[in-house]
Amino acid sequence: MTASKNKPAMTADERRYVERVRSLPCSVCDWVAPSEAHEIKQGSWYTSVALCKSCHRCPKNGIHGEKVMWKIMHMSEIDALNVTIGRLMVKVAA
Predict the structure, then answer these.
(1) Rounded to an integer, what distance in angstroms lies between the CA atom of residue 38 and that of residue 57?
(2) Omega of the bond prior to 34 within 30 degrees of 0, cis?
(3) So what's the pLDDT on residue 4?
(4) Which of 22, 58, 63, 81 is the most buried (most CB within 10 A)?
């Protein structure tokens, strides 16, 4: 993970959290891990969503593109965050 000039560097706790998010399958299409961590609000690492490369950055499917997969799956960023948090909680309980 590289630092961005638009946000402060991650703390050690934020880095650990994001690594856990990245270990999950995609919260939109369920593609197997590792995922990328999409921040709902830039720099708000604890609202990171686990997304595969396609659901994150693909011009057609991705959240930063036309969001085709998101529309097919009837997902919003909050829906995907809910899936991510639910999966993280299951991993903690296990």
Answers:
(1) 10
(2) yes
(3) 60
(4) 63
